[in-house]
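Tutorial sheet, problem 5. The two components below are modelled jointly, 284 residues in total.
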Amino acid sequence: MKMLLFNQLETYLYLAIVLFAIGLYGVLARRSLIALLISVELILNAASLNFMAFNRFLAPHPAVGQIITLFIMAVAAAEAAIALSIIVALYRKLKTINIEQATELRG
Amino acid sequence: MTAISALFTPQGIATLAFFMVVGMTVLGALIAVAARNIFHNVLGLALSLMGVAGLFLYLNSPFVAMMEILIYVGAICIAICFAIMLSEPLYLPKPPRNLVKMLGAGAGAGLTLVFLGLLIKKTKWTPAVERSTDWSITTLGHYLLTNYALIFELISLLLLVAMLGSIVIARGGRGSS
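Model answer (structure tokens):
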């Protein structure tokens, strides 16, 4: 029987690295803080996809990877809340959220 | 003719849907980083996360897929929309793109992609010798309340601290409000 494409570990791993590379490009190239946060969310999703793929195809207990993914989601939610409040506070103080203009600590 | 009839088997339909989900994920991710308008970025992120939820469905985890849509698309994307509305107005002129920086970022991300791709290609993945086939949500709940109870409580504490911290930061800090 031919192996189906969506029943192979490698398919999901390649997808995860594509997501990771797109997110990395966003982190490196964008200058708006919100766009940076969006790119970081993409990278976190690539990590969860990796966990879920290994969980589905290799791990001895298929519940553990799902639990780790749930924890990643919770941490990502906390991180997004903190980052967004920092963005709002920064905009109130500097009237911009461009990271190249937020250089108060440069001295 | 055979190709078309192969499409209408269960496997063919599943493969077609898989390609649609993959397309959603990659297209959404590209919109999320490449679009100029920050609001389009958020919509692209939502599309990409829906695609990832579909991939989780293919990985036998409907509960995590639901949580993905609920937490990411339902909560985080909406919170980002609020932050966009509370910060820089969209009609302001944006600074021009820096071509050198974009090329450098593309080269860095591309090199990482190639390196990780070669790594995956070279590695021989071996599954665990003994694998349980228990995917149910009941087992998930049992694990969360027995083996991982401490982490579960810690996560709730983390969320509480993050909530209080974000309120304190967004209020304007000490004395200035």
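Marking note: Chain A has a mean pLDDT of 89. Full credit if you identified this.
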